[in-house]
Amino acid sequence: MRIVKGIFDKCIIIFGALFLLSCITGVCLAAQQKLQVLTSTADLKSIAEFIGADKVEVASIAVGYQDPHFVEAKPSYMLKARNAELFIKIGMDLELGWENLILEGARNSKILVGTIGHLDASSGIEKLDVPLGSVDRSMGDIHPMGNPHYWLDPLNAKIIAENIAVRLSLILPQAESYFRQNLLEFNKKIDRKMIEWKAKLGPFKGQSIAIYHRSWTYFTNRFGLNVACSLEPKPGIPPSPGHLKQVIEIIKQKGIKAILMEVFYDEKPARFVAGQTGAKVVIVPNSVGGTKEAQDYFSLIDTIVERLVLGMQP
Amino acid sequence: MKKFLVFLVILFSVSYLYAESNIDEVNLLKEELKLLKYQFQEMKSGYEHKISQLEAKIEQITEKTSATEAKVEQVSQVAQASAQQPLYSARTGSATLKLMDISFDSLFTVGGSTASESEIDKLQGGGHDPKKRGFTTQNLEFSLLGAVDPYFNAESHLIFQVDKDGESKIEVEEVFLTTQSLPYGLQIKAGHFFTEFGRLNPIHPHAWAFVDQPVINSRMFGGDGLRTPGARLSWLTALPWYSEVLLGAQNANGETAFSFLNKPGESFSGYTVLSRKVRKMSDLLYLTRSLNSFSLNDETTLNLGASALFGPNATGVDNRTNIYGTDIYLKWKPRINDHGFPFVASQTEFMKRKFEAGELKDNLEDYGLYTQLLWGFKRGWVAGLRYDFADGNGLSTDYLRDRRQRISPNLTWYPTEFSKIRLQYNYDKAQHIDDNNGDEHSIWLQYEFMLGAHPKHKF
Question: What interface predicted TM-score (ipTM) does this complex get?
Answer without folding.
Answer: 0.85
